[in-house]
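Issue 218. Parser rejects a valid record. Input:
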Amino acid sequence: MKFLTLIATCIHICIETNNKVLKRLLYDFARKYIKQSHLIFLYIKIASIDKNTKFYKYMYDWIEKYNALIIHKLLYI
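Output the parser choked on:
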């Protein structure tokens, strides 16, 4: 479940910042490594993200700073 929270937070941040490339890569990554039965939990997590947590703010800063590196790593998995 912690993996789902991490991926859901990253996808939500990409939706908020309108980063379509990284969002698409994260969705594809999630579909590859998460069982089909757990994908519904991912969508629920994305819909219920709380933006006021310290974790969300930290991940927001991290994604903004390392956006290009994350995209590069996800392209060459």
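Fixed in the parser; the record now loads. The chain has a mean pLDDT of 94.
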